[in-house]
Write a structure and sequence with these properties.
- By secondary structure, the chain is α+β, with helices and mostly antiparallel strands.
- The chain has 3 domains: 125 residues, Death Domain, Fas, CATH 1.10.533.10; 98 residues, Phosphorylase Kinase, domain 1 (2-Layer Sandwich), CATH 3.30.200; 196 residues, Transferase(Phosphotransferase), domain 1, CATH 1.10.510.
- It is 38% helix and 10% strand.
- The chain has 16 helices and 12 strands.
- Strands 1-5-6-4-3-2 form a 6-stranded mixed sheet, with helices on both faces. The chain has a two-stranded antiparallel ribbon with strand order 7-10.
- Helix 1 runs antiparallel to helix 6, helix 5 packs antiparallel against helix 6 and helix 11 packs antiparallel against helix 16.
- The protein is elongated and about 80 Å long.
Length: 467
């Protein structure tokens, strides 16, 4: 992108510029003064107190209210000139200098002498954002040249005012992840985990943690397949937003690897938490009830919006700091033209075998396949066991259901011995739901709405009995 001018649309500002503005306007809620001074098309105030409270609420999610406000305002035809006029009215000269450091606008309102905003003010405005980016860079890694807020790069680094996604350069993500530091986070690095289609790193974005997934092709897939997954993920999370779906921050496509940036989920995956990875405590029965209901709620939202996930598994259910579950990884998600998500056939079999329904192994794409996979997740929640274990007999967790039904294994012995607070009656109810989900015949499986109703009732009753 060329140098910023007064005519530059706000939605075209580089992410690093927005970050520098948020560093200045977020403290002491300075952004509120700007928001209340923004006019709508009718000339009246664009933002009411209700809007202001909504922007304030994003702080609890680790987001910047300044950025949220500019993302929203950027959906209009507002320009940098419009923003600068408001900043000048409120004597926010350092913020003006971030946008137009050498522009004549910076000479206004600085006193009768018309002195320009000083270089010192400009450096003070930029420095906090640079410091945030550089903080996670390991000393032994060669640091890339520091990016000035409006420097040009190999690709325009803009955010979409319509979608609210940031477009990062590969260079920025390199800095944010400490040079792609592949040491585990517990060892002081940035590596969060690896999967079939990529490696996930912890990144620092203006003092806020994010998860950066660097996509890699699998042995049996092509770069075209990878780009299809990349585009599918972006398109899905662009149109679908729910408290039980992971949120995307942005993406990068200018480097050697395609990258996706998400909100950071400090609780890790459900798979890891059930295994008590890194010494984590075992989840209580109440927590497991809450997680199962929340995950079902996210899946219900997908199905109601004509989307089939196709890779439902505990590794794709992430937990925030309050153990709120969020479904992730939408690279295989298929949208249907039918609101009922009717069955579709495909010649390509995708998914995770240990969770796949019989019809999915034949190439059928149906919401009932998601139900089957969720049944395996419920067995994991009950037992704390992984979906597949080569040293176990049977290897597949779903096959242990047959042993329970044949009375070769008792349900009491199947239950996770580390779990606290469970009662047999409640366990039997969840196991019954899981069994229905795992029915071989897809038409006999419940809908996700029926599953959710059972799990919410189970959670409610246990919550009441725990008081």
């Amino acid at each position: 992108m060329c140098d910023v001018t007064r005519d530059t649309p706000v939605r075209k500002l580089r992410f690093s510029t927005l970050r520098a503005l948020s560093d200045l306007l977020d403290p002491q809620h300075t952004w509120r003064s700007v928001a209340t001074d923004i006019s709508g098309a009718s000339g009246e105030a664009r933002y009411s107190q209700q809007h202001i409270r909504r922007f304030e609420a994003v702080v609890l999610q680790g987001k910047s209210p300044t950025m949220e406000m500019l993302f929203d305002w950027g959906t209009t035809d507002c320009t940098v000139g419009d923003l600068v006029e408001i900043l000048l009215r409120h004597q926010l000269l350092a913020a003006v200098s971030v946008l137009l450091p050498d522009h004549s606008s910076c000479h206004a309102s600085a006193g009768s002498s018309g002195a320009s905003v000083s270089t010192l003010q400009y450096e003070a405005a930029v420095r906090p954002s640079e410091a945030c980016l550089q903080a996670c860079v390991r000393p032994e890694i060669s640091r890339p040249a520091v990016m000035e807020p409006d420097s040009t790069g190999p690709e325009e680094n803009t955010w979409s005012g319509t979608e609210g996604f940031c477009t990062f350069t590969h260079r920025e993500l390199t800095v944010m992840t400490g040079g792609w530091d592949d040491r585990p986070v517990k060892d002081g690095g940035c590596l969060l985990g690896t999967g079939g289609f990529g490696v996930v790193f912890r990144g620092s974005m203006g003092g806020t943690d994010v998860a950066v997934k660097k996509l890699n092709p699998m042995d049996d897939s092509s770069l075209e397949d990878l780009r299809t997954r990349f585009n599918q993920e972006i398109q899905t999370l662009r149109s679908l937003k729910h408290e039980n779906l992971v949120s995307m921050v942005g993406f990068s496509s200018d480097g050697e690897h395609l990258c996706l940036v998400y909100e950071f989920m400090p609780g890790g995956s459900l798979l890891e938490r059930l295994a008590c990875a890194d010494g984590a405590s075992a989840l209580s029965w109440l927590s497991r009830c809450c997680i199962s209901a929340g995950a079902a709620r996210g899946l219900q939202y997908l199905h109601q919006n004509s989307h089939i996930h196709r890779d439902v598994k505990s590794g794709n259910i992430l937990l925030d700091e309050d153990l709120v579950p969020k479904i992730s990884d939408f690279g295989l998600t298929r949208a249907s033209a039918s609101h009922t998500c009717s069955t579709v056939m495909t010649g390509r079999i995708v998914g995770t075998t240990a969770y796949m329904a019989p019809e999915a192994l034949r190439g059928e794409i149906t919401p009932k396949s998601d139900i089957f996979s969720f049944g395996v997740v419920l067995l994991e929640i009950l037992s704390g066991l992984p979906p597949v274990d080569e040293s176990r007999d049977p290897k597949l967790l779903m096959e242990m259901k047959d042993e329970i039904e044949d009375e070769e294994l008792s349900l009491e012995d199947f239950v996770d011995g580390k779990m606290q607070g469970w009662q047999m009656e409640a366990v039997e109810r969840m196991y019954d739901v899981a069994s229905q989900c795992l029915c071989e015949k897809k038409n006999k499986r419940p809908t996700i709405t029926e599953v959710l109703s059972e799990l919410e009732d189970l959670h409610l009753k246990h919550s009441q009995s725990s008081r």
